[in-house]
Amino acid sequence: MKRVTILGSTGSIGTQALDVISSHPDQFTVVGLSANSSVSQLEEQCRIFTPQYACMMDETAAKELRTALADTDIQVLAGMDGLCTLAALEQNDILLNSVVGMVGLQPTLTAIAAGTTIALANKETLVAGGKLVTDLAKKMGVDILPVDSEHSAIFQCLQDKHSARRLKKVVLTASGGPFFGYSRDMLAQVTVKDALKHPNWDMGAKITIDSATLMNKGLELIEASWLFDKTPDEIDIVVHRESIIHSLVQFDDNSMLAQLGVPDMRIPIQYALTYPDRWPSPVKELSLADCGSLTFARPDIETFTCLGICIEAARRGGLAPCTVSGANEEAVALFLQGKIGFLQIGELARAAMHTLPQKDVYSLEDVLAQDQEARAFVRAAVGA
């Protein structure tokens, strides 16, 4: 029995992870679950999977959950302290971090310090604090198993350790989002409703907007640079509308390997939870004949500026990626509230990176402070 704690269990990744666990009930024990504010959903999950611990980020929601679960032995925690307590539990064999945003960094570091394997679905952990996380993981001998479909694909292609030593380049695939082929003028007119219509994946609102701006792909580039020890110039991005090839690797002899599958996150989630084994999956088989054809195109960095901003941040290093991530997170929230336009997301992220002081060497406190500075910059820039 593998003992699992899931941070962000009511979100898209968390619910699909629980679906995977339900498909293998004799192989997993759920130790802890957490959510932001979805009391009724987390209560239902707790009653089904009977974890020892549950955590709500929102203090008021935590009080409600304690009342709702008063007839059980489940201990309900709250806030960042609660998340870090879940992350540090000695019962954990693996921690699936699927929270959205910077809130995921501290629990990741806490779990690594406790020697727990990380199944990582929280981009901001490596984008904002990549050096802190990877240095600590090396020191503690902890595995970071990627859950994002692209990074999982790369990871799977590198299981031949002899070939992995000859890795020349990483190629991330991108669906292109709902606005592939749009001009800047067209993007200026898109609405929140338009941006939330992803062609292939069912994701949370923030990640879906990031996919529409191509910010998501830029953040993945930064994440890949830390996971696979590659510079930004050793990572390519190609638009692949069908989302069948999830990413590729190129070796010194210029041969390439790719991982293919239907666009279903349960594949990379399950691989992270069962690594290094592969088990039967609830996901349907891929039929190449039914796919018909697969297409590829270069991303339009001039139109979708968020991708270029992330590449620049990756080359700058230090706190630049953290600045872009924090500014983007705040800008996306404002866009979802109807307070700014679609194109302003990238404009604000770029302005924050070019305006705020940066550091090449940083601590956790520096990262958290820079994230808050970037958010405050965005709010001040639009008078929010």
Concise overview:
By secondary structure, the chain is of the alpha/beta class.
Please explain how this structure is put together:
The longest helix has 19 residues, at about 365-380. Helix 6 (about 125-140) runs parallel beside helix 12, helix 11 (about 205-215) crosses helix 16 (about 320-335) and helix 16 (about 320-335) packs across helix 18 (about 365-380). The strands form two sheets. A seven-stranded parallel beta sheet has the order 4-3-2-1-5-6-7, sandwiched between helices. It is globular and about 55 Å long. The termini are far apart. The protein has about 375 residues and is of the alpha/beta class. The protein has helices at about 10-25, 40-50, 60-70, 80-85, 105-115, 125-140, 150-155, 160-165, 185, 190-195, 205-215, 215-225, 265-275, 290, 305-315, 320-335, 345-355, 365-380, and strands at about 1-5, 30-35, 55, 75-80, 95, 115-120, 145, 165-175, 235-240, 245-250, 255-260. It contains 18 helices and eleven strands. One of its GO terms (molecular function) is manganese ion binding. Keywords: Isoprene biosynthesis, Magnesium, Manganese, Metal-binding, NADP, Oxidoreductase.
